[in-house]
Write a structure and sequence with these properties.
Length: 757
């Protein structure tokens, strides 16, 4: 290589971009670095205006300043920062230096030296940012040389230690070290000088007032730009507040009513509170680092995530899930406990927080409550059984009384009717009317007693409850009086219920009379009907569809002790002689016999509401047959065999029938009746149900065998156990209940003979 080639080689290999232009600012020569910097292939820049290497918005300024530079004013463009434009359109920072020379041809040539300033600016920016971070950091950042003298002291250090930077830079850092700790700190600096990095450790420093400051320190080597160790850098943080906060947290944990454990990932206890010491009977220092299975032999619930990233929240406690486990106390005692676990992420790793609640007393209390509930349920069942037994005993008593008592009432009632009929308009007829009224009252009481005891014969049929309410409406108006306002609200489209309409009328009348007595100064009575659905949660009613009958008054109401006894027979709050105590008992008996339930809602001074639920049926309601007057009905000589063991009743029955145009045969027993039936033709057998020696049902069977086609009418005041199923009269059985009137008897026989013909 010849010496004349050296300038060209130097030009082309220079590290900075060099371009040469004439005074027209057009590039005549550009080195390799210039092509690389602006993204052009070699040789392409020759002939390109210099301003094309600048962004559009910078070119006018370049032309103005270029002219000024050529005129001799060169300082403004010397080493001037500018922006360069690459061929691909990217803009970057450059530093431009110019020089002017005259060529051999007399022309002026300008040499432009362009240096990519991006890297230098990034370095400067990074250094400025780092300096800003150091200056604005709340941590104390201190650099020292190898001899321990302070090289830098940021505002965080001034704030933490109370020494201004001017007092510390150039002086030994030992001024902030306690005397007994300087040797340890020197060992730390030695390790750093050997290349080690000392991660955060807890230490103590001294501030300008001489007070100790607890800090967390990190020490690292300080290197120059060549990587040579020139000192150490220490970053310290005041943790006094943190220690106080940790103490407050520990105090809160110790005040918690439940035992709390912090369990590390390896299964060791790393945190305990005071209640945990009491629960497990182990001191705190022994609990720490103890494996959890030694305290909770059944382990922790498996559905609690051990890591917040595995399903729990990363920065707070997850929702706890309680599980029953056993806890092992010191000495081997096992306790029943509830455990709730959740995961917490900490600086030292994931910690499972375990809350342990002693439930021994709670379980004992629950067991005691269960025992008391069982005893209460047993007592309730026993009370219900005793009530059932009382009702059964009452039913047997009522049945026994009703048979004989109704016979007597039938005699009294009909002989009184004879006197009224034969001595019409005389004083004896008036007296006989009083006798008949008393007999009818006695009959009503007997029916009430039988209805309550579920011994009364009922004739149920599908009926519309609205019809019953409507038909009894006027009767209720007359019974209540003008001082009580009656409101009736019925719901259209009610399904039918299976019940005896007469009994339902009796229910309404009894409830209305009770309401009237509870409103002596006036008030209002509301009767309404509706359809309700009873769900599975009902305790006293089977689930299903029901028709509701509700009777509500605004009377004096009933306290709880009265409600509890309201349906008991003969219980009454009325003065002596003003109540029998059978009204509500009768209501209860009728409703339950129909398969329904009755409830009382009342309070003293707030009125009373009776709610009756009757099972709904899909069967269409039947209209009641219209009854015509029994007057004028005669037997037309038909033969009736009367069988009655009570002489007086047999005699009065025969007298009614003879006066009504029947041919009468009379028998006092079943055997005598069979004899008469064998000797005489019989159209109708009229027999008592319960008789000594032979029951009426057996007699009817025997007569039908000897005289097929003979019609049968039973008469009794207590026929339910013999002629009915669950109190319901079967369709093929015709019964007239005692005590009966002559009109009722004539109607029964007439209807029976009509069926025969």
């Amino acid at each position: 290589m010849e010496s004349r080639d050296v300038p060209g080689i130097v030009f082309d290999t220079a590290p900075d971009a060099i371009v040469v232009t004439g005074d027209d600012c057009v590039i005549s020569l550009a080195n390799r670095r210039a092509h690389d910097m602006f993204g052009y292939p070699p040789g392409v820049l020759n002939g390109v205006p210099l301003e094309d290497l600048l962004p559009e918005e910078d070119r006018a300024s370049l032309r103005v300043q270029w002219a000024r530079y050529l005129s001799g004013r060169r300082d403004p463009l010397s080493r001037r920062p500018r922006r360069g434009l690459r061929r691909d359109g990217r803009i970057f920072d450059v530093e431009m230096s110019l020089s002017v020379t005259s060529g051999p041809d007399g022309r002026v040539y300008v040499t432009a030296l362009l240096r990519d300033d991006t890297a230098q600016r990034e370095v400067a920016r990074s250094r400025a940012l780092l300096a800003s971070i150091v200056q604005s950091s709340h941590d104390a950042i201190i650099t020292t040389d190898l001899d321990g003298r302070v090289l830098s002291w940021n505002p965080g250090a001034e704030l933490l230690y109370g020494h201004p930077a001017s007092d510390m830079i150039g002086h030994p850092v030992d001024a902030i070290l306690p005397a007994g700790q300087r040797a340890d700190e020197e060992q730390v600096r030695l390790l750093v000088r050997l290349g080690a990095r000392v991660d955060r450790y807890r230490s103590v420093r001294i501030d300008a007032k001489g007070d100790p400051v607890t800090v967390s320190a990190l020490i690292s080597p300080l290197l120059d730009e060549h990587g040579t160790l020139i000192g150490t850098t220490s970053i310290t943080r005041d943790v006094s507040d943190r220690e106080r906060a940790e103490a407050r947290v520990q105090a809160i944990l110790d005040a918690a009513p439940d035992a709390m454990l912090g369990v590390a990932a390896d299964g060791e206890v790393v945190l305990v509170n005071a209640e945990a010491e009491r629960l497990f009977g182990v001191p705190r220092y022994d609990l720490l680092h103890m494996p959890v299975p030694l305290l909770l032999p059944d382990g922790l619930p498996v559905d609690v995530p051990a890591d917040p990233d595995a399903g729990g929240a990363p920065d707070h406690l997850a929702d706890p899930r309680w599980a029953t486990r056993r806890a092992l106390r010191r000495g081997g005692e096992l306790l029943q406990v509830d455990i709730a676990c959740s995961s917490l992420r900490t600086d030292s790793g994931t910690v499972t927080v375990v809350v342990v609640r002693d439930v021994t007393e709670r379980i004992a209390a629950e067991e005691e409550r269960r025992r008391l509930r069982e005893e209460a349920e047993l007592q309730r069942l026993e009370a219900r059984m005793q009530q059932t037994q009382r009702l059964e005993s009452l039913g047997q008593l009522a049945g026994g009384i009703a048979h004989d008592f109704n016979n007597l009432l039938a005699v009294i009632l009909n002989y009184a009717a004879f006197i009224i009929e034969d001595a019409a308009g005389s004083q004896p007829a008036v007296d006989a009317e009083q006798i008949a009224r008393a007999a009818r009252r006695g009959s009503d009481l007997t029916h009430q007693l039988l209805a309550f005891a579920r011994r009364e014969v009922i004739r149920p049929r599908p009926l519309n409850l609205n019809t019953v309410v409507t038909e009894v409406h006027q009767m209720l108006v007359r019974s209540l009086g003008e001082h009580i306002a009656l409101a009736v609200h019925t719901t259209e489209g009610l399904p039918a219920v299976i019940a005896d309409p007469g009994q339902l009328e009796q229910v309404l009348v009894n409830l209305a009379v009770n309401a009237r007595d509870a409103m002596p100064t006036g008030g209002s009575l509301t009767v309404d009907t509706a359809v309700v659905e009873v769900g599975d949660d009902a305790t006293d009613t089977a689930p299903g569809r029901y028709v509701r009958l509700r009777v509500a008054d605004t009377g004096t109401g009933m306290p709880k002790e009265v409600i509890d006894k309201a349906f008991e027979p003969f219980f009454t709050t009325k003065p002596s002689g003003q109540g029998t105590g059978l009204g509500l008992a009768t209501v209860y008996g009728i409703v339950t016999q129909a398969g329904g339930t009755v409830r009382i809602h009342s309070a003293a001074g707030l009125g009373t509401t009776f709610t009756i639920l009757l099972p709904a049926t899909e069967v269409e309601a039947q209209e009641a047959d219209a009854e015509d007057d029994a007057a004028g009905l005669t037997g037309h000589g038909a033969t009736v065999l009367v069988v009655e063991d009570e002489d007086a009743l047999r005699e009065v029955t025969c007298r009614i029938l003879r006066r009504g145009g029947y041919t009468v045969l009379a028998a006092g027993s079943g055997d005598e009746a069979l004899r008469l039936a064998g000797e005489n033709p019989v159209d109708v057998l009229l027999t008592d149900v319960i008789m000594p020696g032979m029951l009426g049902k057996d007699l009817a069977t025997a007569v039908a065998t000897r005289r097929p086609g003979t019609r049968v009418v039973f008469m009794s005041g207590y026929a339910q156990p013999v002629l009915t199923t669950h109190g319901t009269l079967t369709a093929d059985v015709h019964l007239i209940e005692k005590p009966f009137t002559s009109a009722e008897l004539m109607r029964a026989l007439h209807d029976e003979l009509q069926v025969q013909t």
